[in-house]
Design a protein that fits this description.
The complex is a heterodimer of chains A (about 400) and B (about 110). With about 400 residues, chain A is mostly helical. Chain A has 15 helices and two strands. Chain B contains two helices and eight strands. The chains are: A mainly alpha (about 400), B alpha+beta (about 110).
Chain lengths: ~400, ~110
């Protein structure tokens, strides 16, 4: 097949859009922490991006998309990207472009996990953990869904990574938070976000980048991409408004809540973007906003310090999205029927795929975090935490 | 009339405010300041050596009260700001000559 310039251009642009989301997560989280940890939070996102970029071309891509080994992981055929052509293949774009597009997904997943480490992680240990996590948690999960693994074969639908990226990172952040422990002073005094406009700016980058994330996942510049583009926006909007409204009942509606609702909507539509139309997207987004808000309140009431709510927004939002895909999938949109069209099997396949990924991500992360904690120590000393990670880990000040 | 000038840990401010409110003392001026005490800041130990953070963020509270209340205010601030670790801060007591309310011109001495 000859190179399709339209599709190739769109995928190049989408890759760049999704790249922007990783620093976007950094700025989103950076605004939420105290000033003394601002640089640290943004730096973690960039460090993740650099690390995963290298890991991906060396062996991460091969583990995710190499020939299937037991339905669980890819083999090492593509190590160092050997044997991957840069000529247009069957899909009309060079396979190397697919490598780059998938790379930016792997990066943002790990960046989301930094929520559980916020304001207390030792940088050197974090680097080791990030390499282990992206290799042993992300790469297998990407293989399960998209690389020829069991979940894809079983029929679980995950259009753009609701399970692979969001359930995995959200529940991983929860596991990390349980291992590393609460921030000093958590629950005793308030730890207010130091720069809310920065978080809003980070959210703007996320919302913008998400068009590449979801519409790019059509892997073509076609009508499926257009559907994904529009429903992504619809769901984000519904999520923003629903979180705004339910939080209004308990006091003033904060901009942070509203924007968290938008991210919840974006997360929930991610697995469904190629399978549902705008009206189900509105329902998915609106419910995501309410559900994730409830998850955050529950997390706070249990006094758990999963500091920046990756679990509540990405974990719970991703879980809802996977289930919602099994409910709302419409034959006319993406060629699959969900529960509403009478296909119970799709619902079961999606719920099972999501639960398996959830358990795998949570348990393996728990083990990896514990391992790094026992050998290298995940946490900085009490004094380093007190003066902040900007100074103690980077020798810099905002 | 006295001014109580207290330098405390930023994270203890809410506790100090609550403790003073209980006594009916609401008026205060807060500043974010940087400072150090006898330890010249905090030394962080690394395998490669040490790094000193010599100025630490603190909160300064200024409160002007009548002579008889000064002792109580100092006690309340001390109790609420106390953690027992190095870096809890200092409290100073200064004499105040006059106090003039801008809106009304009302003056107390």
């Amino acid at each position: 097949m000859v190179l399709d310039t339209g599709t190739t251009s769109w995928l190049l642009i989408s890759t760049a859009l999704v790249m922007l989301m990783t620093p976007g997560v950094g700025f989103f989280y950076g605004g939420l922490v105290r000033r003394k940890n601002f640089i640290s939070m943004v730096a973690l996102a960039f460090i993740v991006f650099a690390l995963v970029s290298i890991q991906w071309v060396l062996f991460g891509y091969s583990l995710s998309f190499g020939s299937d080994v037991g339905g669980f992981i890819g083999n090492l055929d593509y190590i160092g990207l050997t044997g991957i052509p840069n000529e247009a293949g069957e899909a009309g774009y060079p396979p190397l472009l697919f490598v780059a597009f998938q790379m930016v997904f792997a990066a943002i997943a790990m960046a989301i996990v930094t929520s559980g480490f916020a304001e207390r992680v030792k940088l050197s240990s974090f680097i080791i953990f990030a390499l282990l996590w992206t290799t042993l948690v992300y790469d297998p999960l990407a293989h399960w869904a998209w690389g020829g693994g069991w979940a894809g074969a079983y029929g679980s639908l995950d259009f753009a990574g609701g399970t692979v990226v969001h359930i995995s990172s959200g529940f991983a952040a929860l596991a990390v938070a349980l291992v590393i422990g609460k921030r000093a002073g958590f629950g005793e005094y308030s730890m207010e976000p130091h720069n809310i406009p920065m978080t809003l700016l980070g959210a703007a980058l996320l919302w913008f980048g998400w068009f590449g994330f979801n519409a790019g996942s059509a892997l073509a510049a076609n009508s499926l991409a257009v559907n994904a583009f529009l429903v992504t926006n619809t769901s984000a909007a519904a999520g923003a408004l629903s979180w705004l409204c339910v939080s209004w009942l308990r006091g003033k509606p904060s901009s942070l809540g509203m924007i968290s609702g938008a991210v919840a909507g974006l997360v929930a539509i991610t697995p469904a973007a190629g399978y549902v139309g705008v009206i189900p997207a509105m329902v998915i987004g609106a419910i995501a906003g309410i559900l994730c808000y409830g998850a955050m309140l529950w997390r706070l009431s249990r006094k758990m310090d999963e500091s920046l709510d990756a679990w509540a927004v990405h974990g719970v939002g991703g879980l809802w999205g996977a289930i919602a895909t099994g409910i709302f999938a419409a034959m006319a949109i993406g060629g699959f029927s969900g529960l509403i069209e009478g296909n119970v099997n799709q619902f079961i396949a999606n719920a099972a795929g999501a639960l398996a990924a959830l358990v795998y991500a949570f348990v393996v992360t728990l083990v990896l975090a514990k391992l790094v904690d026992m050998t290298l120590g995940l946490r900085v000393s009490e004094q380093e935490e007190y003066v902040g990670l900007d100074l103690s880990q980077h020798g810099e000040r905002v | 009339m006295k001014m109580v000038k207290a330098i405390i840990r930023p994270e203890r401010l809410e506790f100090v405010k609550k403790a003073l409110e209980v006594e009916g003392i609401f008026g205060m001026t807060i500043s974010e300041v940087m400072g150090r005490g006898d330890q010249k800041g905090i030394s962080l130990q690394y395998r490669g050596g040490t790094m000193t953070v010599d100025l630490i963020p603190k909160i300064e509270i200024d409160i002007v009260v009548g002579d008889t209340d000064a002792g109580l205010v100092i006690q309340k601030i001390r109790d609420a700001a106390y953690t027992g670790k190095i870096g809890d801060g200092r409290i100073f007591l200064l004499p105040v000559e006059r106090s003039i309310k801008v809106r009304t011109g009302e003056e107390t001495t």
